[in-house]
Each structure stands twice: as structure tokens, then as C-alpha cells.
Specification:
- This protein is elongated.
- Strands 1-2-3-5-4 form a five-stranded antiparallel sheet.
- The protein folds into two domains: 140 residues, no CATH class; 129 residues, no CATH class.
- The two termini are 14 Å apart.
- It has 282 residues and is an alpha+beta fold.
Amino acid sequence: MLKLLRFGYLKILGNEIPVAVLEGEKRVMVQREVVGLLTGNKKGGLSRYLKPDNLQPYLPEKFKDIPLDQAVLKFKVGNVTAQAFEANDIVNICEMYIKASTAGAILPTQRKLAAKAEMLKRSFAKVGLIALIDEATGYQVLRDKEALRILVEQYIIEEAREWTKEFYDPFFHELDRIYGNQRTISRSRPKYYARFINKYVYEPIESGLILDELNRLNPLDRKGHRKKRLHQFLSEKLGLRVLRDRIAKVTAIMQISPNMRRYKESYERMESKQMWFNFPED
């Protein structure tokens, strides 16, 4: 199971396709979406489309050594396991159909597949599928230090703002309730509330990049305290606006959750939809 680094939504031939970057800088497309692009039917895997005897002379080298099933990459999106293929594998599969068609080796039943493969190849030929996935997921920002600096600067200010209330009592009332605690006040809240806030409010903002920078600017001391609140280092223009959206979203999920277990289930389900990977398990 590979770790998901970035996700996004790539428009190809009028279809909006979930794409991702996994650990090891593997750019991938979800298997069922690839099958849907080629065939118009998302059911089933790709293996059956590579098995016909007439395609074997044009089979990508990679799949001559290992079965297609072993080339599938798996990763978690919320509580769903997704199966995907690397971008280069998709390109090579398209080229297989194109070469077979050019050589006159294509079967009548495969003509539509060959035509779709040609269209797909042409749609990302100018800049390459890897570049398109990097752009769609925002991964190129992580690779470009200057772009990363500019991104962080949109959220962060170096000097802390004057304190303003951002986490209102209803947020903590819901937090007390789902943890099964009595009503708490500011000075008596357990430390794990801070961990909850970091995980569900701050960490999802730009995949943890903003939280990392906030921790650098406002580190914990030996007693586990900070000089300022994290949100005092967020910009008015973007940082606070995104933070308030996150607080509202987390509060809404807590309101429909009777306890912490159900909260986690609801959160994972809604985050999966937000990441455009709302597909059934393969």
C-alpha cells in the first residue's frame, strides 16, 4: 500500500479523471477510470484488453515480464482502497493499440479502442501525462522551491497578529460531546484536543505544508506550550479564510456524529468525496 502525496482532477476528452502522486513520485490514474476512458465502461480491469493474441507483438515491454495485475499500485483514500496504474503505463498501453492499428493487425472489435487510444495519446502529447498530473495535483509546487515559498507566503505572516477568537465555544461543545466529556473551559481542556485540531483543521491545508511552517514559526517549548496561537500567524487574505472554512466543516461533521468513532467515519467519507476519489472498492 503506497502513501498518497497529492491528488487532483484532470480533464481528458471531456471527462474529469481523479489522478494522484504517490510516494516514490509515482504519478497514477485510477484503474477503473482508465478502463472507462478506453472502453466507455468502468467495470472490470485492464488485463482482458491486453490478452488478445493479435496484440502480443505490440505489448509494452513491462507487461511481457510481469502480469498486468502485478503492475497495479494500491493506495488508501479515506477508508477506500484504490487501484491505479502509473502514467507511463497508460501511455504505453495507448501506443500498443496505435501500433497494432497502424500495422493493420487490429480486429474489428478493437477499432473503437484503437481510435480512443489515439485520441487519448494526442490529448496529452504536447506536455506529457506526467506533467499534466503534476499540474492537476499541484505536485509541481512541491518540486519547485520558489513556487513552494510563494504558496506558503500566501497563507503565512512572519509576525504574529493580535489575538482574535477563531475557535468559538460551539466548536468545543461539540468536541466535548463526541469525546464523551463534561463541558470544558479554555484553561481545562485536555491536550488531545490540540492534537485533534492539528489533525482535522490544520493538517489538511495544503497537505500539511502550512502546519509545518506554523510549527516552525511558533514551536512548542519544553512544557508543551506555545507563545502564540497558531492562527495568529495566518494571513487575513487567505490563511484565516481557509482556516475558518476548515473549522466550519469540522464542526458540521461533529454535529452529525454521536461519538468520536462515528466522527472519524463521517470525516473520512467526506474527505474522500472532497478529493474526487468517490469510487467503490476494486
